[in-house]
Amino acid sequence: MAGTVNHKDWVWVVVEKDTVQKPFLELEGGGALLAMEEETKGLKFIPVFRTQEDGQSGWHALPKKPGAQYELQAMRLDEVAEAARGSRFDIFIVDREGRVMERLAPMADA
User: Fold this and answer.
1) What are the tens digits of pLDDT across the range 59-72?
2) Those residues with Cβ within 8 angstroms of residue 91's Cβ, 6 or more apart along the chain or in another chain
3) Domain layout of the chain by residue ranges
4) Angstrom distance (rounded) from CA 5 to CA 67
5) Residue 101 and residue 99: Cα distance in Å, rounded?
6) Are strands 36-38 and 43-49 parallel, antiparallel or unpaired?
7) CB-CB contact of 19 with 26 (8 Å)
8) Distance of alpha carbon 74 from its chain centroid, rounded?
9) pTM greater than the 0.90 cutoff
């Protein structure tokens, strides 16, 4: 999935299962999207992977809560954008090493 990203594209996200605390980005079916905060830069974002392979390699490199259980799930980008918009989070595409590759512009309501 190179080039422009479309709101109908599927991306891979890390989901915290069986959350104990109320998360920033709770999902309707349970769990919460892994969201990150870089306080020194004033950034709050959801890391997403373009491919399942990148996600399977890279999600382990992302900081997570000790003791929490996580899994990789596919979501449509417009669904991720809706969750991000409601909590004022950005969406960053990360690579298989967990490095930020691209910051996605906010998406209008689809």
Assistant:
1) 888 888 888 888 99
2) 45, 46, 48, 77, 80, 81, 84, 103, 104
3) 10-104
4) 34
5) 6
6) antiparallel
7) yes
8) 10
9) no
